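Consider the following assembly input.
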Amino acid sequence: MNLSGNWEGKLLDTSGSAARVTTSLKLLKNRVTGDFSVYFESARDGCDFTGWKLAQTAPMSGTYTARGDKLRLKYKLEIGSKPVDVVFQARIINADPHARRALVGSYTVTDKEQEIGFEGGVCLLWLYR
Amino acid sequence: MSCPAQTIRIRTRCVETAWHGGCVSSVRTCSQAQIDAIFVALDGICAKIDSCDLRGLNDLKDCLRNTSENVVWKCGTLGDSIVAQTSGNEITLTPSAFGSTTSRFEAIVFHEMVHACGGTELDSEAFENHCYRGAGATAPTSDDFPKFRDDGGRWVNWNGSTGSVTTKDGQTLNVNTAAFVDPSPPSGGGGGWF
């Protein structure tokens, strides 16, 4: 199950935030590295969508375990003064015809002391091409 | 003809009228970010027209190359869960379309451009799923199949039993055939049961 590639999708956080997410992952054995970016809509006033604004980008590194189509990514996001621990548990599924694969899962921010604005939620990412 | 388009036409709306009713001030219906997104999609579509395996179909390909400049783009809302719509040479894109992933947005624009070229729903769905399979396409929905049955295709033929889609010249399109199987095929002939 190859996770490497450029993933794109959305997250919905317990705090009420919804955001666009992109992440490029590299997988080597059970180590995963890459970067992670979050974008919020720059304005949505009624029907006036004006685009996405980059809110945060961060390198990430962690470990990866898989059982069948279920996987668990435990990684650190290098945001703020110290890295933030995140656990992302997901299923990887065939997304034909929309995308090659999809990651469907939920994430938990385990370090509550860090104020990054995310508390945990659901996330769906697609791997195109 | 220029593909990708160097300029595009954006529908405007009047925001101030004179005493005689004429418009003295108008604004674009699309924001600059939306216009930028349309240009990005058109760049991708022009490359796709060349890279997607569409044998023959020169009229469609030429039209798609022209359409990127000739169509009028409108940004606004549409009815229930409709993300985009084509009427004549005007394509309306909704906030929901712009909020899609980059790949999905390009596939939506491509789908509408096939309509603007005179394609039916079957043509648009078939070429979207052929050219953007795994790269932003979505499968036909239940609303699409009655149109497939009633209108057929200008450039493609469809076998509702197998889900196979071929061009009129016989090229089999690389669609997910399971997604194109007719979920409620018309009953066969033979009349009623009595």
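The longest strand of chain B covers residues 12-17. Ask yourself how this observation constrains the way the partners meet.
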